[in-house]
Design a protein that fits this description.
Layout: E1 17-19, E2 28-34, H1 46-55, E3 63-69, E4 77-81, E5 84-88, H2 90-93, E6 96-100
Amino acid sequence: MVEAFSPSLEAPLEADVRPLATARRGDRGVIVRVTGVSGAAEAVAADELERRLLEMGFVEGAAIEVLHEGLFGRDPIAVRVDDTRVALRRREADAVSVKFDGQ
């Protein structure tokens, strides 16, 4: 009997994969996972956050680059997702896992 593969939210990620919230200006990479779950208290439910991020273009395989950071606490951040520019809070960006290019 073969068991179906079901990825877990707690599954370990590759060493160069980290949350978008940890990125600095100029960092580039590829989105590998969008969960809707972040470490901070959310203003919206996890499934709603995931839906919003997906609608804005944060999908697996999309190229991403951090363009700007806010002055105070580096929040919010502006990112380019493929050909779209989006600004979001770091607590929301924590729900997006990115494989960053080596720098």
